[in-house]
Amino acid sequence: MKPIKGFSKLTKVEKLNYIVENYLDASKHKLEEIKSFWHSNAQAQQILDDFSENTVSNFFFPYGVVPNFKLNETLYCVPMVIEESSVVAACARSANFWLSRGGFKAEIVGTEKVGQVHFSWKGESSKLIKFFNESAKELLLNEVAPLLTNMEQRGGGLNSLELKDCTDREDDYYQLWATFETCDAMGANFINSVLEALGQKFRTLVSDNESFNETEKDLLVIMAILSNYTPNCRVKAMVECPVEDLEDKSLGMSAELFATKMRKAVRIAEIDVNRATTHNKGIFNGIDALILATGNDFRAIEACGHTYAARDGQYRSLTHCEIKDGLFRFWIDIPLALGTVGGLTKLHPMAKLSLDMLNKPSAKELMMIVAACGLAQNFGALRSLVTSGIQKGHMKMHLVNILNQLEASEQEREIVRAKFQDRIVSYKDVREELASLRDLQ
Ligand code: MEV
Q: Where are the domains positioned within the chain?
């Protein structure tokens, strides 16, 4: 097959025809199948199409909710977009568990965002630093002042600007290091615009500076971009209760043993990289699902969370647990650079609906809800792991998926569910069970 030229210029239907003809056996059935996922409202579909490029259809994910999620004395109904079985159920179980034990508490540690202009400059670093501090910095701030006006009116802006000498890491390497407050916006566009303006102006200032020789005048901007690592845009969420209040029939063990096993499970994730990765993955099951539901950027949030988890050189758990003076305390400490205005938050109809469902939160409120959701998810996973094991719940959902796939009737479902109550679920076994049932009829 030859590469296609100008694919992006084709209409949506032409693109679809190309794909079906070349990659899907030219099947009319496939064409109709892809089209069946188009939104029935053409205007709504256009909005979705415009988010990205070369769009030919939509990819549906389940949109679930967790009601009764008590955080800082408010009861939320938390929306979650996730395809993995048991995630919403586990979060809902945790929310219910803590509802009668004081609920979740959360607080903001900071909201600072960071951006960098990376550049090369050949010369004596002290000369550049002097130039930056004595004249360039002020001129740079003047240059970007008009770009800051709107954000400043909302209470944000550019908080600090520094020159960092990174020549100990790489020859001739420096950074302009800027910190920002972006209020309810995630702020990527704002930050990147300011950084690009800073980079261009700094290059001009350096090349126009008569005290530099020809080599020194030639500053090379490599790139200007925000950093998704925002350790000072951070939130803490926690739950706590007297150990004896953890008592719950469904645990199948005493509250003391449960608390001890929970603390040990978290400790293992704090010291063992292999466990930490799975442990944090479970946290992001909850976080990503809510981030997606609210139209935020889950890749940025994950990248940042993982970097933070490795901040002392070893990748560790993002949650922590202690038992002290008879109190069980479980908390998460996580950077979350989120927005509740701009980006997809208003454009995506379901993201907007999610934010409405959460009482139109500020970015800070959303940070707290997301952190608590990650904590709830982790509590749910650990609770299963240290009690019944994870497979019990998973198998139930796995069975539902297989029965759906095999188009089982209601009656067949009932019989198969009973048969697999205490059995390991496999696709093969369920298919055979169904086949024998169908043979009998
Ligand atoms: C599965 O998606 C997530 C868990 O593996 C998390 C964990 O092990 O803590 C259950």
A: 7-49, 63-110+235-388, 113-227, 394-440
CATH 3.90.770.10, domain 63-110+235-388, yes or no:
yes
Instruction: Tell me the two tokens of residue 79.
Output: 């929306």
Residues with CB under 6 A from ligand 1: 84, 278-279, 281-282, 285, 381, 385, 390
Pocket test for ligand 1, best of 279, 377, 386 (most atoms within 8 A of CB): 279
pLDDT in tens, 306-332: 999 999 999 999 999 999 999 999 999
Q: How far is the CA of 279 from the centre of ligand 1 (A)?
A: 6
Distance 425 CA to ligand 1 centre (A): 18
Residues 80, 82, 87, 88: is their CA dihedral positive or negative? Answer: positive
Residue 79 has a CB neighbour count (10 Å cut-off) of 24
Give the residue, out of 375, 384, 390, with the most ligand 1 atoms within 8 A of its beta carbon, to mutate for a pocket test.
390
Ligand 1, atom 10: nearest CA belongs to which residue? 381
Residue type, 164: K
Residues pairing with 64 in the sheet: 80
Top CATH class of 113-227 equals alpha beta
Instruction: Give distance in angstroms: CA of 374 to centre of ligand 1.
Output: 12
Q: Which two tokens stand for residue 267?
A: 């400790």
- Ligand 1, closest atom to CA 275? 8
Q: What is the pLDDT of residues 4-34, one digit of tens each?
A: 999 999 999 999 999 999 999 988 899 999 9
Q: What is the pTM of this model?
A: 0.91
Write out pLDDT tens, residues 251-281. Answer: 999 999 999 999 999 999 999 999 999 999 9
Instruction: List, edge to edge, every strand of the sheet that includes 173-181.
Output: 157-165, 173-181, 113-120, 220-227
Q: How many CB atoms lie within 10 A of CB 270?
A: 16
Q: Among 389, 100, 31, 136, which Cα is nearest to 241's?
A: 100
